[in-house]
């Protein structure tokens, strides 16, 4: 059997417009990959240099060195920083999806010099009862059920409607690239995850930020609205008849909102 090569950097893809162009860095959520952003690439590359990253164990980011028995958000964030520093990117706008919003806020805490504007799509901002219940259930049931079963259950909880099926299908396909060992390491982030959510909810947000939520994102919507109402530099955009993975499900509307925000073409709050 051919032995897998160890890699020091996460897998990434760059779309380079020009040396003068601003950068946008994309951070997907748990169980995703850089394919999460397939509808954003064509829309954004005429305006920005793009950096898309596969998080550790996701997509093609396999066998990353150094290896760890357990993960925390310091490790996950440092992985992203190593890629950015390797490419010599000094400052960029950042776009995240779902759990990526926690990674992005951690990155802002560690390296605020890197970040210009922040976009958090389907952001996770509070450890609600529903989130805690699912995370603890996932940890417990991982001893009895294949992790793919848990991902399927989660996809139906978060994306239950007919119009969510494309996002649900992509989520399931990408999550299958995780091994059971890798899945358990990511589930093991839950203590650090809950701790960071508490801290970031009350931490002063210094960067101009856009939170984009689907109107049908019943698991995360209320916390997102509370987060935005608490932070003066945060703006809210809600997409009607749309679920959690709003950058896929209604990508044209999403791209329009986010480009207007990043290019400075809107004033005040961004509407739905």
In brief:
The chain is of the alpha/beta class.
**Integer tally of domains:** 1
Helical stretch tally: 11
Kindly estimate the percentage of residues that lie in beta strands according to DSSP: 5-15%
Q: Give the SSE string.
A: EEHEHEHEHHHHHEHEHH
The strand line-up of the biggest sheet is: 1-3-2-4-5-6-7
- Calculate Rg over CA atoms: 18 Å
CATH superfamily: Alpha/Beta hydrolase fold, catalytic domain
User: Under the CATH scheme, which class?
Assistant: Alpha Beta
Helix proportion = 40-55%
| CATH-defined topology | Rossmann fold
Structural class of the secondary elements?
alpha/beta
How confident overall, as mean pLDDT?
A: 87
Number of DSSP E strands: 7
Low-confidence stretches: 267-272
| Major sheet summary line | 7 strands, mixed
Structure description:
There is one protein chain. The protein is α/β, with parallel strands linked by helices and 272 residues long. 43% of the residues lie in helices and 14% in strands. The chain contains eleven helices and seven strands. It has helices at residues 38-44, 73-87, 100-110, 129-141, 147-158, 165-175, 180-187, 190-202, 221-230, 246-249, 251-262; strands at residues 12-15, 23-27, 49-53, 92-97, 115-121, 209-214, 234-239. A seven-stranded mixed beta sheet has the order 1-3-2-4-5-6-7, with helices on both faces. Helix 1 (38-44) links the parallel strand 2 and strand 3 (49-53). Residues 267-272 have low confidence and may be disordered.
């Amino acid at each position: 059997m051919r032995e897998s090569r160890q890699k020091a950097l996460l897998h990434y893809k760059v779309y380079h417009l020009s040396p003068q162009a601003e950068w946008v860095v994309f951070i997907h959520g748990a169980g995703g990959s850089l394919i999460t952003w397939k509808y954003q690439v064509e829309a954004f590359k005429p305006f920005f240099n793009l950096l898309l990253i596969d998080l550790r164990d996701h997509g093609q980011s396999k066998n990353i060195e150094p290896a760890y028995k357990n993960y925390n958000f310091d490790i996950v964030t440092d992985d992203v920083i190593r890629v950015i520093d390797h490419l010599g990117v000094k400052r960029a706008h950042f776009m995240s999806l779902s759990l990526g919003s926690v990674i992005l806020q951690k990155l802002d805490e560690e390296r605020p010099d890197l970040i210009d504007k922040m976009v958090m799509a389907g952001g996770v901002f509070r450890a609600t009862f529903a989130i805690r219940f699912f995370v603890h259930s996932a940890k417990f049931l991982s001893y009895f059920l294949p992790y793919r079963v848990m991902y399927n259950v989660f996809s139906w909880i978060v994306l239950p409607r007919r119009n969510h099926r494309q996002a649900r299908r992509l989520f399931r396909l990408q999550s299958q690239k995780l091994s059971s060992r890798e899945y358990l390491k990511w589930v093991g982030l839950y203590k650090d995850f809950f701790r960071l959510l508490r801290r970031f909810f009350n931490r002063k947000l210094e960067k101009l930020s856009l939170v984009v939520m689907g109107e049908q994102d019943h698991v995360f919507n209320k916390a997102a609205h509370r987060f935005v109402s608490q932070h003066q530099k945060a703006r809210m955009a809600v997409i009607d008849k749309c679920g959690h993975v709003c950058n896929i499900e209604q990508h044209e509307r999403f791209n329009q909102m986010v480009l207007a925000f990043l290019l400075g073409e809107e004033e005040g709050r961004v509407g739905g």
